[in-house]
Amino acid sequence: MSQIFPLNPAHPMPLYAQLTRAIQFAITTGRLRIGEQLPTVRQLAVELRVNANTVAKVYAELEREGILETRRGVGTFVGARHFEAKSRQDPKELLHELADRFVEEAQAMGFSVDDLLDQLQSRRKRR
Question: Contact, 71 vs 37, CB < 8 A?
Fold first, then answer.
């Protein structure tokens, strides 16, 4: 799982935020599928070499958002409710949310919106 959830302790973004983004990205890209079980808090903490409280905080936050669901005595799974609701959401609203997350993450890395726009324009010209 550490290959799916790469964390960089030297990065300015806190580890819990990196892990949150990594789990969301793995789900979005299909590396984790709806209904798939995630490692236990302890297993993932050991594998990623982070505090178990960090993993527990991420799991709890993603569960509150409906992205994960915990089944007592069974484990933590990628939830379907969140994605069913997303599929009914307006595409323009989804794009707006994506842009907000993108800008937020870039700013956490020290990039400005202008830096992002320059990079996007550069990519657009290459295609």
Answer: no
Query: What six digits make up the tokens of 125?
Result: 């010209």
CA distance 87 to 19: 24
How far apart CA 109 and CA 48 sit, in angstroms, is 21
Which residues lie across from 78 on neighbouring strands? 68
Q: Do residues 35 and 96 share a domain?
A: no
- pTM for the whole thing? 0.67
Which contiguous run of DSSP H or E holds residue 122?
helix 113-126
pLDDT tens track for 51-63: 999 999 999 999 9
User: Does an H or E element contain 69, and which?
Assistant: strand 68-71
Number of separate domains in the chain: 2
Q: How far apart are CA 39 and CA 37, in angstroms?
A: 7
Q: How do residues 65-122 score in pLDDT, each as one tens digit?
A: 889 999 999 999 998 765 554 555 677 877 777 788 778 878 777 888 898 888 888 8
Domain of 77 in residue numbering reads as 1-88
| CA–CA gap between residue 2 and residue 16 (Å, rounded) | 14
